[in-house]
């Protein structure tokens, strides 16, 4: 069913984790006529780019300002918030942060009929914490999350999900509207190569240059002279949001299923809970990339 556009959106992102978050943020900002970004949240992460979840969150917070400046959207910097500095210790106790507080308050301005869209492309701690702080918002948000792997995959030890399984279980159980975009088995289709980045992005504008060169630099560092592709996982969230709101299947295909919660040992529970959700099972790679290129290579400003 088509929704009256534009709709308000917040994004929760570990923006310094790797190279795809920056693409997703930029892609979201480029669709201003459909998706009105009202806040950005820096999520925690821990990998080789950070020394702790708190350090990952702080680096992500700074990266948000960098992307917003390159995109000519400095007006949104005051609406960027630091998120959690750690993960949930259990399924009942929120991690208090500026991001969680903002979402817990901001979502009260919306309704089940016209919810606030929450694009989550990281460990979902901030969103879970907001719901635990203010359970009333659960029916006022639509969470679209890139997390976990496809149900057909051998496990679900995916970076976003496995960092904080407690948070994933909270959001999947309580969020009134929830859409899951699996990584392996679905979003893995969104691969880009060095020649494509050089051909379509470099030289178009400062933002496109940064996105392409950042990706090339990171990929060249581990490819050791070999050809490579990188998956831009996170752009799937924007593409799926557009399809949902426009009532289309241009970028994605999804179906309504019962919700299978993740387990703490890296699987899904065998018995679903009594709650439906949207499950994305296909992404049209070329359609997404044609739109991404068109949107991100225009003059910025």
Description:
- The chain is α/β, with parallel strands linked by helices and 301 residues long.
- Helices cover 37% and strands 20% of the residues.
- The chain has helices at residues 20-30, 53-70, 98-106, 125-133, 159-163, 165-174, 194-200, 206-223, 235-246, 285-296; strands at 7-13, 35-42, 80-82, 116-121, 141-146, 177-181, 191-193, 229-231, 252-259, 273-283.
- The strands form two sheets. It has an eight-stranded mixed sheet, sandwiched between helices. Strands 7-8 form a two-stranded antiparallel sheet.
- The radius of gyration is 18 Å and the shape is globular.
- The model has no long low-confidence stretch (mean pLDDT 97).
